[in-house]
Amino acid sequence: MKEQSTLAQSASQEHSRTKRGKKTGLPPGSIVHVGDRRVSESKLELISYGESHFDLQPLTSPDDLTSLTTSNNRNWLNVVGLHDTALIEAIGRELSIHPLVLEDIVNTQQRPKAEDFEKYFYLSLRMAYVVPERNEPSLEHVSLVLLPNLVISFQEEEQDVFEPVRERIRQGKGRLRGEKADYLFYALLDAIVDHYFVVLEEVGEDIEDLDEQVLQHPNSAQLHQIHQSKKMLQRLRKAIWPLRDAVQATLRNRPHLISEKNVLFLRDVNDHLYQIIETIDSYRELLASLLEMHLSSVSNRMNQVMQVLTIMASIFVPLTFIAGLYGMNFQFMPELKWRYGYPIVVAIMTVIAGGMLVYFRKKEWI
Amino acid sequence: MKEQSTLAQSASQEHSRTKRGKKTGLPPGSIVHVGDRRVSESKLELISYGESHFDLQPLTSPDDLTSLTTSNNRNWLNVVGLHDTALIEAIGRELSIHPLVLEDIVNTQQRPKAEDFEKYFYLSLRMAYVVPERNEPSLEHVSLVLLPNLVISFQEEEQDVFEPVRERIRQGKGRLRGEKADYLFYALLDAIVDHYFVVLEEVGEDIEDLDEQVLQHPNSAQLHQIHQSKKMLQRLRKAIWPLRDAVQATLRNRPHLISEKNVLFLRDVNDHLYQIIETIDSYRELLASLLEMHLSSVSNRMNQVMQVLTIMASIFVPLTFIAGLYGMNFQFMPELKWRYGYPIVVAIMTVIAGGMLVYFRKKEWI
Amino acid sequence: MKEQSTLAQSASQEHSRTKRGKKTGLPPGSIVHVGDRRVSESKLELISYGESHFDLQPLTSPDDLTSLTTSNNRNWLNVVGLHDTALIEAIGRELSIHPLVLEDIVNTQQRPKAEDFEKYFYLSLRMAYVVPERNEPSLEHVSLVLLPNLVISFQEEEQDVFEPVRERIRQGKGRLRGEKADYLFYALLDAIVDHYFVVLEEVGEDIEDLDEQVLQHPNSAQLHQIHQSKKMLQRLRKAIWPLRDAVQATLRNRPHLISEKNVLFLRDVNDHLYQIIETIDSYRELLASLLEMHLSSVSNRMNQVMQVLTIMASIFVPLTFIAGLYGMNFQFMPELKWRYGYPIVVAIMTVIAGGMLVYFRKKEWI
Amino acid sequence: MKEQSTLAQSASQEHSRTKRGKKTGLPPGSIVHVGDRRVSESKLELISYGESHFDLQPLTSPDDLTSLTTSNNRNWLNVVGLHDTALIEAIGRELSIHPLVLEDIVNTQQRPKAEDFEKYFYLSLRMAYVVPERNEPSLEHVSLVLLPNLVISFQEEEQDVFEPVRERIRQGKGRLRGEKADYLFYALLDAIVDHYFVVLEEVGEDIEDLDEQVLQHPNSAQLHQIHQSKKMLQRLRKAIWPLRDAVQATLRNRPHLISEKNVLFLRDVNDHLYQIIETIDSYRELLASLLEMHLSSVSNRMNQVMQVLTIMASIFVPLTFIAGLYGMNFQFMPELKWRYGYPIVVAIMTVIAGGMLVYFRKKEWI
Amino acid sequence: MKEQSTLAQSASQEHSRTKRGKKTGLPPGSIVHVGDRRVSESKLELISYGESHFDLQPLTSPDDLTSLTTSNNRNWLNVVGLHDTALIEAIGRELSIHPLVLEDIVNTQQRPKAEDFEKYFYLSLRMAYVVPERNEPSLEHVSLVLLPNLVISFQEEEQDVFEPVRERIRQGKGRLRGEKADYLFYALLDAIVDHYFVVLEEVGEDIEDLDEQVLQHPNSAQLHQIHQSKKMLQRLRKAIWPLRDAVQATLRNRPHLISEKNVLFLRDVNDHLYQIIETIDSYRELLASLLEMHLSSVSNRMNQVMQVLTIMASIFVPLTFIAGLYGMNFQFMPELKWRYGYPIVVAIMTVIAGGMLVYFRKKEWI
Q1: In terms of domains, do C152 and C47 share one?
Q2: pTM
Q3: Edge-to-edge strands of the sheet including C74-80?
């Protein structure tokens, strides 16, 4: 069933978190991959572009990256797969990135945060997308490093969240080609944040379907679905809250690598983060209300069944007693010999049953 | 039924939100209409007025708008319908409005916010009104742009929320004609905020009706109504909270287009927003309490039914057993031959039934 | 019943709030009375006093009020009845009070706030008192305007909350006569705030009565009372929270009309407001706990009834079956002809009943 | 019973609060005793000490107190009993203490607060102790006034909370004798705050006892105990929160009477207050969880009873019907004349009962 | 059972807290051990190391510690066992540590806090680890004192949480040997904080196991487990919240003993603390949702049982009545003599039973 697989998948994701503990006791800056290995082979893809040209090529070694930061082009290096710590370390050494940052890049449980160093700006966040084959939301750890003329993105799996940005560079649409690396950095961040809307729409549709069903046909499978949706929203929330803090901190102490005029775009991202949080919160509230409705509906339905049946049983109890009374085998029961004993008793029974029905109806019990 | 249609309507409104996702991946400043197309044709209406004159005319093209900002008149351009992005873009180009702002104007899911640019001041908010034919609250995305001598309002549908302002300009009542454009801006904002009171009164009356009914005749339809009212209040709250933040930010960093003496009026609006939020919150609390009352009432009523019926059944159980006992066909049952066996047994039964009634009454069960 | 009338009264008060909507669309500063007309005729009462004299006189017209602000006496003008907007407007014109303030004075739904103008200081608040004939708390909108040598108080009904202040002026007790108008302003504010304690004691006694009853004799009328008390506390809280904000803002930006040495008294009022809020909150918490106790008690009591009755029924079910078994009319049932068949069956029944009783007792069900 | 008396006692304490209202309408600074009179006679006790000497004497009149503030000794005046307002007023007059402070000293409902005057520092707080004869926590209003060389403590009853401090002065243990009056002030405050730990341990033990019992033998008396513990914790919390605010405000704006080097000790007190609040909050959370457990346990137990009994009843219902069937008196019922009719019917009954048992067991209902 | 022992253990830990009260009344700075004595003998272990050497030796007396602070080596003194207050006091005297700090070191109930003195920096915190033999989380009070060239750690029991640090010093791995004492201080703090992840993974696995079980086989033991997990999370939360406050305060007012370049590492610790808190909070939320699911599941299951059984009983009630009717012994009951009376009655019974089944099925009750 769909719910089962969601559970299994989220359970397995939760499980990967348990490996965080294996880092305990290592010196800080130890670059240890935490999480599942999602791709078989790490992949480096370099896109170089300028006002009028564009060049995409796979990269086999991280040498010579430093030269990119002083080139005339803008460069975007996309690293897919975080398990190859030697590769990540080589990149870090080449660009003098602090070991603590490298540690965060390969730790897929790292919470979203922004850190401004003199030579580069680091942002860690979670990317959300809907896995097409399972039709389910999934979260992935992404790191963005902004250097002069170079943006490096680290991701666990190859997903199409960045594809529209790649397309815009390729086609030279919009301002992307003409802007500096900080605009590319913003474009990638914006692509990730915007994709939360897609995921939330998916989740929201499920919740709204539930909303209609719960009031019409309450059943226990809905309980499970409410529980799953709650957990999914909680995971989205846990990914988005610290990201908002990070973006706000970035807005407050604008890093020198981000130019003044692009702050407006960051403010726009911040705005979207607020909207995402508000949407998540309103879905959470709706789910809480749905759970209440569900419990009440189930209880109402049960009460209805019990009430009707109990009333029916109650009517027959005294009648059965009377029948039992005249089923007794005493020798001296004068009624038994009366000519009209039987019809009289049946008449009495009818009166009792009728009286009870009238009484119950008056009490509005039936 | 009324509730059904409310549900359907709110569901359809929720549905339009799902289209937010289609913007994902587009470059920032892409002017894409998000939401339902509520009117067939966009409409431009220009009101020009001064101390002593007044002129209303429909506008067919957005050319020459720049000249308005330097005219001697105050001008109010009301744009109805947001789906015609070409038109909005033309207005934006003419007045050098930032593409991100234009994007927000046509995005009907945009959350309320204020942004101060050098040449204009932008405020996005939600207008609330009661749809007369359905007798139901509805929310609509509105944008206000304040320029020198010109206020532009963008709305989805033509509603009469602005009519009193138009009337005051027409009749020259109040200070409106003599004041600058920032006062008109305030008047429009005030008209929108004040209309929340009308909507809240509508919602409040429903809740107070519920309050009386729940305690007297609890039924499961009330559950549905409580759930619907909760959702409506949540939507109003989601519209009003960020607006208050926006108005407060405007008060803190007063934009140069808003004159010192009109700040007092903005403070008044801020005050109304507080009152609206407090009213919403107290209704929400009342609904929570109502739900508790409802559940308790239903449960109390059920308990009452069950208790009376169970007690009745319990009294007859031992009696029926005794009757069954003397209905047995053993050959050697001396009681059956006793002269007064039958009356004695009936007497015993009466004693048992009476004893139980006394016991139950002593225990205060009946 | 008492509860019914409370409900009706609070409902009617809530109802008057619905008239707030009629102001929508009017220009700001429109002086429209919002709320019920509680007195038939507006009344003006002027008390003039100095170190050594005292003079009380009704006032028929608001002319010459300006002269009071420059007189050697301190003056207190008490206005009872807010529906006569012409009168309020005349007072406002005479003393150059801003139309927005006048609007707030006659709007009985206005939330408490303080506003400092150059020439006067305005405070809007709610007065709470116990209506003697109904023994119920009631809230009333009050406005205080502090000018040099003059305090104006606007109230909806004539209540005795101000009487002790009047008495202290009359008898020259305390420092009141020797102090400036700001001390009178404080004395009036203090009288209103202190009266909340009286109201809270009234409410608190009801809640403590409930506390004792709920644990001893839970019944469904208590549900209603808990609900009513909750609503009353919510209304008091809604009146007192913004007042505390207003008093704190006054303490922060001390208006020049309030002298340095009287700030200590304002701090005392602030302190009382804190205590009132804490008391309200602890009552709310107590009510929430009471509701839980009530529901548990009702449920416990129901469970007890059901359990005893179900057990009794259960014991007789197998016995009745056995009796029915030997009530069958088969020709070949050897037991029926046994000499001791009947006593044996009765013995078996006794053993079964006894065994079940022992089992139930061992399980601690009875 | 213990619970009953706790209730009664706490109810009577709540009751004394209701007298707060009698002050309403009096001028500020009216010294009116609010609360119960707990001792028959007020008592003044003066301890004078220096580096090398120590003197304890009862005081009969408050004259000459001013001379103490300029003496070479440190002095501690302990006032027991707050109902003798004339005495308190005399002390206040002698030492020029502000009437508002005196008003707070005799108001046993005063919430904890600190106020710094030029000549003295005032701290109002609640003392918590366990009443030995009732084994129950109790709260008492205490005021501390710090003057140069003199500390005055006002308390309602004579309790041994201050005894260890007295003992330390008497024996010259620790730094107390060698320090200034501000250290004595701190020592008294510390003694009061530390005693909360004793009270919390008492309350905590009860709660932990409950924790064990609830899961093993849920019964309705536990409901009562949970409710009582909640109320006690709420009262402690209401006493400690404002005290923490007061101590923090004291730390922020260090009064000149408290020397720099003793601030460290005040920080220690602040730390203890935090720990007390955290302990109270964790007990509150534990109680909430306990209540949930209790309700679930009760409901589980009830369900278990109902289920077993219902199942038993259900098995006999069809059997009894079959027995009734063959108890009918029709003349033409061929089965009745069959040689093996009776054993066949008994066999059928056995099969039905067995089948139902198997079915129920498969469904895991029994 | 496992749960039982957890309960017992946590109860005993809670119990030790009750001894906090024995300090009440003692002068501040009284060094009294609060808590259980967990080791029989206190133990001092001194590790001295420099860039190129390493020396570990047990210490028998705390003399000459001062010389360490001025040596060329870095020194780490680990004190195991806090009950030997004479020893702790001797260390304190030797290094001029404030008595209040010593008091906090031996008080195992001390809440986490940081305090900066001129000559040393003090940090009190809780260490969390999983007790291997019981497979259960446990908390222990730890104090860290940072002096020039010397770090002293005080712990209750000898645990292996510090072992990785010791190992890194021994093997000269990482930067530890080459750095100053503040880096060692950070390394110890980091080791403690990182170990929370191990504990949380343990707790998290239990909760996720519960999550799966609750939806599949709800039973009352799960209630107990939810309650225990809640208590454990609450204890972890109570340990980690004040630690975060302490670390943040340390970051804000950087003590001079911590060098600028190591602040980055402290920020990393701070980051981990945030992540721990978020993980705890998400587990708490999950537990709350689990409890709701559990209660709903139990109630659903009960409802299902009751419904099926009640329906079955209801079908037989009218049939049994009819059987009883024809079991009556009236002499004049014409039906009894009819040739087809019996089959007709049986047919009627079948029709009634069938009709009820159809009706119930239509109502979706079965």
Answers
A1: yes
A2: 0.83
A3: C54-59, C43-49, C74-80, C150-155, C136-147, C121-131, C113-116
